[in-house]
Write a structure and sequence with these properties.
277 residues, five-stranded parallel sheet, 8 helices, globular, alpha/beta, 14 strands
């Protein structure tokens, strides 16, 4: 590389030196999950005091991470970190309900602890609920860093702005996409490859609702695509696999398409010699 290009890159690095490293917030959120769920923790705490000190260290680390972008925050970094930690009991309760819903809805799940420790759907939702709280606190960029971290870890892409109710169940999960302005009710179950997306990606739509609303007790099967901010899937509905839906359906609906599949048995080949020994 020539010296002019090197100098240009150096200037860019100097301008970016105050940005928060992505690895810092990802490492921190893993620490929070270790705090909330012993099944995920590498360390074991012998006393309440040890656990309190660990939680306090997480809050201090979060404050240090946020202090690198304090000018972009709506309040001091210390206050954001404090509010985030104060919401952990509610987030923990929501995640326990999610884990219970996954365990109850999957015959292959042996226990809630197995779900917490091994299921990518649970991990994606856990990171989302933490990222959503940072998003709600108007922390820039970091919620998206976390959502992309979860995406890379699990194959599940949930924008941190998406609003998700209780008992949320993701089964398998690979390829799920949930857009920023999606509203998901309670006791909703999604299978792999589901997209809750927008009908248009025009930049002028940035501040309006452009992703669907999924009401309570809805099941959406693999490969279904539901688009549009005005699209509402009514409560207790079932959306079949590979459905393309861009309009609302009332409660208790069953939506599916019937593909034309023909199966014919070929004639046995005449030139095959069978040997018997």
């Amino acid at each position: 590389m020539n010296s002019q290009f090197i100098n240009t890159l150096f200037r860019h690095h100097q301008q970016a030196k105050h940005q928060v490293p992505a690895s810092a917030i990802c490492h921190l959120v893993e620490g929070v999950l270790h705090l909330l769920f012993p099944a995920l923790a590498d360390e074991r705490f012998e006393t309440v005091r040890e656990l309190e000190e660990y939680a306090s260290s997480l809050q201090q680390n979060l404050m240090r991470v946020l202090s690198g972008m304090e000018q972009q925050l709506p309040m001091p970094a210390e206050e954001v970190a404090q509010q985030m930690m104060q919401h952990l009991p509610q987030i923990h309760q929501l995640l326990l309900l999610d884990a219970e819903a996954i365990a109850a809805g999957d015959p292959a799940a042996q226990s809630v602890q197995e779900v917490i420790r091994t299921y990518p759907g649970f991990k994606a939702v856990a990171i989302h609920r933490l990222a959503h709280e940072l998003y709600r606190l108007q922390v820039p960029l970091l919620p998206r860093v976390l959502s992309e971290y979860a995406h890379g870890q699990t194959g599940i892409d949930i924008h941190p702005g998406a609003q998700i109710g209780t008992h949320f169940c993701i089964d398998h999960g690979t390829g799920i996409v949930i857009g920023e302005t999606s509203h998901i009710g309670n006791h909703v179950k999604l299978y792999q490859g589901v997209t809750l997306g927008a009908l248009s990606v025009d930049k002028t739509m940035a501040n309006i609702k452009r992703h669907p609303t999924i009401e309570h007790h809805v099941v959406i099967y693999a490969g279904a695509t539901i688009l549009g901010g005005n699209t509402v899937v009514g409560a207790y509905s079932t959306i079949g696999g590979n459905v393309w839906l861009t309009e609302s359906v009332p409660a208790y609906s069953r939506v599916y398409h019937r593909p034309q599949i023909n199966v014919r048995r070929s004639a046995d080949p005449t030139d095959v010699v069978n040997f018997s020994i």
